[in-house]
């Protein structure tokens, strides 16, 4: 008997964590399974090319999501009704994490909306009470539409829905439709920062997949998910980071016009998405490029602009690596070859410099030391400063491992980079703490665990 599973892939980087791993192979191996991937229309062709191969029982449905915008690092569609946006805001702000408190400070002083910030403060305090959270979810389900994707439910009659991003509004709409039709829901927390930064979850799934025990604790505490309904998997896209044979240093650096015999600094300057008119990127480039017997890889951001002044590539000294640029993270995609290239860059670098980035975890999986920039290069208030990002819950957890250095000024940045160039083994044990706490297991089997778990849920529908 044929069984049908919906897999959502709306957020840009969801694909590399799900579709480009062994999950599709495991589900597709059973010819009784029909896998329907729900994705934005503009990604349909790429997904078919990247992920389907000769799988006859996998279908990509391209959905017209219209315009999507980012609101304080969460997402809402321009096409959403006022009521939908109102509920979106309610859930986003009904969370009293340290991360959300930082956003309220920026809202009050930076954006200049003290009354709105006060209302959101009240919501956050109410969100500490389970009865309020339960009432909010009840109203959300009762009032908001459940038929946004009804045509696909009618067409395929799914037995199971796998929502790969529990906080994404399009995933929520799919889950709401599934709940109304009493279809079993397995959801996933997409990334390590989502629970503490994206507010209150709107749907409680039948089962939840999380990457690590730490995220499981957060899901129990903030999302009201029973512990027995949470499955820990690890991070599937890191399977290839630790298993794949990397491009040779000589071949990679030949393409970058760099010297394979020099110590190499990987620097990811912050995008203006996170900090406006910030001079620190250009200042850091000028300091790091002058370090003796070293060279610099400038890895540009996928979204937003970066102020690098008149910086240009210099053979044997500076390379600028630019991934495909995107309007926002919903449209962003890191194709398998692009993800492999990023891993190659990190693997062959001697130290990684970034600003409050998941790159720290990427680098730690490959054993590379990381220095975070914690200053702005000019005087600015806290709510506009890069420093505020290190008060976010997930960044504090990361810094507490001791596996990342946080530079408070340019002198510290240069010192930490020099120290790691001279002794890459510094803080190695602490970087292992990052792997344990933020990856859980790097055994090349995270995708297999997710795939087998979904198979078990599909068979038991």
Task: Describe it.
The chain is built from 20 helices and 15 strands. The chain is of the alpha/beta class and 461 residues long. The protein has two domains: 3-68 and 144-235 and 443-459, Rossmann fold; 239-438, Rossmann fold (3-Layer(aba) Sandwich), CATH 3.40.50. The strands form three sheets. Strands 3-2-1-6-7-8-9 form a seven-stranded parallel beta sheet, sandwiched between helices. Strands 12-11-10-13-14-15 form a six-stranded parallel beta sheet, with helices on both faces. Strands 4-5 form a two-stranded antiparallel sheet. Helix 2 packs parallel to helix 20 and helix 14 packs across helix 18 (410-422). The radius of gyration is 22 Å and the shape is globular. The two termini are 12 Å apart. The model is unreliable at 68-73 (pLDDT under 50).
User: How many domains, in number, for the residues?
Assistant: 2
User: CATH topology of the largest domain, anyone?
Assistant: Rossmann fold
How confident overall, as mean pLDDT? 92
Distance between the termini: 12 Å
Give the CATH architecture of the largest domain: 3-Layer(aba) Sandwich
Number of strands: 15
User: Which CATH top level class of the largest domain fits?
Assistant: Alpha Beta
Summarize the model shown.
GO terms for molecular function: CDP-glycerol glycerophosphotransferase activity. This protein is an alpha/beta fold.
């Amino acid at each position: 008997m044929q069984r049908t599973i919906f897999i959502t892939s709306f957020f840009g980087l969801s694909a590399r964590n799900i579709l480009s791993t062994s999950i599709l192979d495991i589900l597709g191996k059973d010819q009784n399974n029909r896998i329907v991937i729900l994705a934005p229309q503009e990604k349909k062709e790429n997904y078919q090319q990247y992920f389907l191969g000769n799988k006859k029982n996998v279908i990509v449905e391209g959905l017209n999501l219209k315009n999507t915008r980012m609101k304080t690092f969460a997402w809402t569609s321009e096409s959403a009704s006022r009521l939908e946006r109102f509920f979106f805001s309610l859930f986003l702000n009904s969370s009293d994490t340290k991360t959300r408190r930082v956003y309220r400070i920026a809202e009050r002083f930076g954006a200049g909306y003290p009354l709105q910030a006060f209302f959101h403060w009240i919501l956050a305090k109410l969100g500490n009470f389970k009865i309020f959270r339960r009432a909010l979810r009840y109203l959300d389900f009762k009032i908001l539409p459940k038929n946004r994707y009804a045509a696909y439910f009618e067409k395929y009659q799914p037995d199971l829905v796998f929502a790969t991003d529990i906080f994404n509004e399009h995933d929520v709409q799919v889950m709401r439709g599934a709940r109304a039709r009493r279809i079993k829901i397995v959801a996933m927390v997409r990334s390590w920062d989502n629970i503490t930064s994206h507010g209150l979850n709107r749907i409680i799934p039948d089962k939840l997949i999380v990457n690590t025990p730490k995220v499981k604790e957060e899901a129990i505490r903030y999302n009201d998910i029973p512990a027995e309904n949470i499955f820990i998997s690890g991070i599937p896209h890191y399977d290839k980071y630790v298993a794949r044979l990397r491009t040779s240093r000589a071949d990679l650096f030949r393409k970058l016009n760099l010297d394979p015999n020099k110590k190499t600094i990987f620097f990811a300057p912050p995008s203006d998405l996170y900090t406006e008119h910030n001079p620190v990127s250009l200042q850091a480039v000028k300091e790091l490029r002058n370090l003796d017997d070293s060279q610099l890889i400038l890895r540009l951001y996928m979204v937003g602009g970066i102020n690098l002044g008149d910086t240009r590539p210099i053979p044997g000294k500076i390379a600028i690596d630019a991934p495909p640029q995107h309007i926002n993270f919903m449209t962003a995609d890191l194709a398998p070859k692009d993800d492999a290239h990023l891993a190659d860059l990190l693997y062959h670098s001697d130290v990684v410099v970034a600003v409050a980035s998941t790159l720290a975890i990427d680098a730690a999986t490959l054993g590379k030391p990381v220095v975070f920039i914690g200053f702005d290069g000019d005087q600015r208030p806290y709510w506009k400063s890069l420093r505020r990002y290190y008060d976010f819950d997930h960044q504090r957890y990361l810094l507490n491992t001791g596996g990342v250095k946080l530079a408070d000024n340019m002198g510290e940045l240069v010192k930490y980079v020099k120290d790691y160039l001279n002794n890459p083994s510094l803080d190695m044990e602490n970087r292992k703490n990052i792997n344990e706490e933020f990856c859980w297991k790097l055994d090349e089997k995270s995708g297999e665990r997710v795939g087998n778990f979904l198979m078990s849920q599909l068979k038991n529908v």
